[in-house]
């Protein structure tokens, strides 16, 4: 197969983890936090069964027929998602969230950054985090440049 006819594909894999957290910003007063986050600011926290879908993209290898070996992706997701997050209190057990509010948006960024350290460069396409069936965040590594 010539380089001109290389086929591109996206490959996705999902995992589910359970964790608790409290939405609370150190930059706000207790009253402001309660107003902004409502019941999610409960001092004792609350939990979710998060579903994460990771999508990688790349050329289909003409020899293996794969964008990436699913066994490798499974291991990367275990290290980047399950080990640091599953059955954890995000705010107390995950150092990243000691200074960052543990919103689903920031959970997606945390997962993206962890996967970027493990996956071949340029292959990660998106991280989709389902906090509930109704609430989903998609992160593709996009950043706005600060002026």
From TrEMBL:
<comment type="function">
    <text>Involved in the biosynthesis of tetrahydrobiopterin, an essential cofactor of aromatic amino acid hydroxylases. Catalyzes the transformation of 7,8-dihydroneopterin triphosphate into 6-pyruvoyl tetrahydropterin.</text>
</comment>
<dbReference type="InterPro" id="IPR022470">
    <property type="entry name" value="PTPS_Cys_AS"/>
</dbReference>
<keyword id="KW-0783">Tetrahydrobiopterin biosynthesis</keyword>
<dbReference type="Pfam" id="PF01242">
    <property type="entry name" value="PTPS"/>
</dbReference>
<dbReference type="GO" id="GO:0006729">
    <property type="term" value="P:tetrahydrobiopterin biosynthetic process"/>
</dbReference>
<feature type="binding site">
    <location>
        <position position="21"/>
    </location>
    <ligand>
        <name>Zn(2+)</name>
    </ligand>
</feature>
<keyword id="KW-0479">Metal-binding</keyword>
<feature type="binding site">
    <location>
        <position position="48"/>
    </location>
    <ligand>
        <name>Zn(2+)</name>
    </ligand>
</feature>
<dbReference type="GO" id="GO:0005739">
    <property type="term" value="C:mitochondrion"/>
</dbReference>
<feature type="active site" description="Proton acceptor">
    <location>
        <position position="40"/>
    </location>
</feature>
<keyword id="KW-0862">Zinc</keyword>
<feature type="active site" description="Charge relay system">
    <location>
        <position position="87"/>
    </location>
</feature>
<dbReference type="GO" id="GO:0003874">
    <property type="term" value="F:6-pyruvoyltetrahydropterin synthase activity"/>
</dbReference>
<dbReference type="InterPro" id="IPR007115">
    <property type="entry name" value="6-PTP_synth/QueD"/>
</dbReference>
<comment type="pathway">
    <text>Cofactor biosynthesis; tetrahydrobiopterin biosynthesis; tetrahydrobiopterin from 7,8-dihydroneopterin triphosphate: step 1/3.</text>
</comment>
<comment type="similarity">
    <text>Belongs to the PTPS family.</text>
</comment>
<dbReference type="InterPro" id="IPR022469">
    <property type="entry name" value="PTPS_His_AS"/>
</dbReference>
<keyword id="KW-0456">Lyase</keyword>
<feature type="binding site">
    <location>
        <position position="46"/>
    </location>
    <ligand>
        <name>Zn(2+)</name>
    </ligand>
</feature>
<protein>
    <recommendedName>
        <fullName>6-pyruvoyl tetrahydrobiopterin synthase</fullName>
        <ecNumber>4.2.3.12</ecNumber>
    </recommendedName>
</protein>
<dbReference type="GO" id="GO:0046872">
    <property type="term" value="F:metal ion binding"/>
</dbReference>
<feature type="active site" description="Charge relay system">
    <location>
        <position position="131"/>
    </location>
</feature>
<dbReference type="InterPro" id="IPR038418">
    <property type="entry name" value="6-PTP_synth/QueD_sf"/>
</dbReference>
